[in-house]
């Protein structure tokens, strides 16, 4: 098999390192942990009634994954599957991920149907064959259980009849009782206490009359709940709020987008448009470069400070919030950040992100400005030390001060209206103290107020 790890989707047939033969049916299985440097192999069952086949097992799609849930099969039993086709959508502890086939085969039987929850790693989820005529042989197939696998060993250890002790050495059951256990000498048993009168309880309301509906939490929601609770309970948060006058930024963005639109019309290509969030990501990364103490994480007995700024960007998907990463954002141009964010957001909404594209990061940006939110605070995304919450911009009257216009006299300052963006940084106080966070906020505000300084 070709090593296709760099593809945009995880493949079910990455064929992890093989384990030994199963005792009961002789079928080799794909192991759940090793994913690289493997080959696609075929094998034949030792049982005469089963043709050549493979058991596909629940794969390990993230370092912390122990169970997976099958959100949906994209193929049904009997379908032909070609290399690169999406086979299923799996919910891991991190996200909902698409699994593709990396070889051609026929899906003979689905062992774990849509909605199967918390399937342990290595559990068979499907049977595949290479020949279409072999599909019917697996109509009633069920994989061997762990008990079936261990039964031959138990049978081998069971002593034979000839090895059993002579009957004269085995006392009958009555003889094993002590002398005091004679029925005549046994004290009379106490009468059982009277049964308490059962109280009638009202029957719970039926689903049709209840005033609520219980919706089962997805695997993603359960893991997010655990991580958020852990973050709030174990990380000492503190918050700093700031305001950025972004008039120059909006003018620069307008000018850039106009040039890109003209270029697109001339070349017949799509125009690359910068968003305010692209400037926020770039300004955050630049401020992290100026104040590297924020680009760190707490490790219990030491603080790890990173040399590269990898910015996680919160993206809303149908299954929940996920944070794909813009790697090396401090070294990227604004146009490169814009393209990367759009590409990652598209993959996230299609559940096609690879684990390395959303696991890690050294800082997070969460923007709710497009939803009309003026300001908010966010929860630190561990093990990172800080997260920036970005609200929407609004036109406001700027502070009025006196000014000397060169006449030698103080004149009333002109009142002007400006666009103000409100932000708040949440910090892990074990890593970042108030003075360091204030220095970071000052650098960030300067970059947002004078965006040309980001480009220098």
Automatic annotation (TrEMBL):
GO terms for molecular function: acyltransferase activity. Residues 178-188 have a biased composition (Low complexity). Its EC number is 2.3.1.-. Pfam families: 2-oxoacid_dh, Biotin_lipoyl. It is an enzyme of class 2 (transferase). Signal peptide: none annotated. Residues 53-129 form the Lipoyl-binding domain. CDD domains: lipoyl_domain. InterPro entries: 2-oxoacid_DH_actylTfrase, Biotin_lipoyl, CAT-like_dom_sf, E2/Pdx1, Single_hybrid_motif. One of its GO terms (cellular component) is pyruvate dehydrogenase complex. Residues 139-208 are annotated as: Disordered. The keyword Membrane does not apply. Keywords: Acyltransferase, Lipoyl, Transferase. Residues 148-158 have a biased composition (Basic and acidic residues). Its cofactor is (R)-lipoate. The keyword Membrane does not apply. GO terms for biological process: pyruvate decarboxylation to acetyl-CoA. Belongs to the 2-oxoacid dehydrogenase family. PANTHER family: DIHYDROLIPOAMIDE ACETYL/SUCCINYL-TRANSFERASE-RELATED (PTHR23151), DIHYDROLIPOYLLYSINE-RESIDUE ACETYLTRANSFERASE COMPONENT OF PYRUVATE DEHYDROGENASE COMPLEX, MITOCHONDRIAL-RELATED (PTHR23151:SF90). This is Dihydrolipoamide acetyltransferase component of pyruvate dehydrogenase complex. The lineage of its organism: Eukaryota, Rhodophyta, Bangiophyceae, Porphyridiales, Porphyridiaceae.
